[in-house]
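Before we proceed, please read the two lines closing this message. Let me know whether the structure tokens fit the sequence:

…
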Amino acid sequence: MQAAVDDTLTVKAVRKGESDRHGRIIEVHGKDGEPPYLVRWQDEHESLFFPAAGTVVDHHRATPQPSAR
């Protein structure tokens, strides 16, 4: 898995009745966007995270700005 700062993660619930976990990557500690990631979760808790099966990354790459003329 590769990700960047500001990408979001969803960790799918594995047990019935549990909710998915959602967080935003605030630091990338691996080489070339690889884990581990420092993640700020929806509850504002921060943790060093190593993704496993059931983790989905949503990439939020910066959109290029139009050049000034």
Notes: The CA atoms of residues 2 and 33 lie 5 Å apart. The chain has one domain: 8-58. DSSP finds no helices and five strands in the chain.
